[in-house]
Amino acid sequence: MAVHSPGPELTHDLYLHIRVIISIVLGIAITRVLSGLAKFVQHPGKLKVYPVHLLWALIVLIASIHFWWWEFGLTAIASWRFELFLFVLFYAFLFALMANILFPDELEEYEGYQDYFQSRRGWFFGLLIVSMLTDWFDTAIKGHDYLASFGAEYPARIVVTIALALVAMRTRNARFHFIFALLYLAYYVSWIIRVYDPGRG
Known about the structure:
Layout: H1 8-42, H2 51-70, H3 82-102, H4 113-119, H5 121-140, H6 144-148, H7 153-170, H8 174-195
């Protein structure tokens, strides 16, 4: 069966179709995090909060919402190909995977979320690194002008985050993990506010 690229008149409808699928995947990630956070309220005596785990859960929640909004920039793409669709869908999958790693189905074999998070930190931070690289490429495909509009801070943010994530994969140092998560959350929120400020040039 021959496959043809959509004509210009179908590009907008195709984008809306793709955005629906992305929203479904992101909805899974957001639901997983919210359900996991709700368990701390439902079973306060059973589940002990681990601050580092909680901070990363908030980061993944905010990042999933931010990603959905960020993808509005895909309207600038004039022609869609199946490979590009798979790439964007893969990017959305990363959030769902990180959310599911943060909140497993069972926790009985671990002493708590601290023990669990530390035992799976390689997977989590590995996915974080992949998401950083994917984020850069996702921004780049929206055009050189779009990428350049974020200045030198954007690539610096990607490089620094990857470097710190590599360290986090190798160390169990509690202070490092807490400071990394706290500073990343604060910076990420600051980045979102500054990027989407209506007064931004």
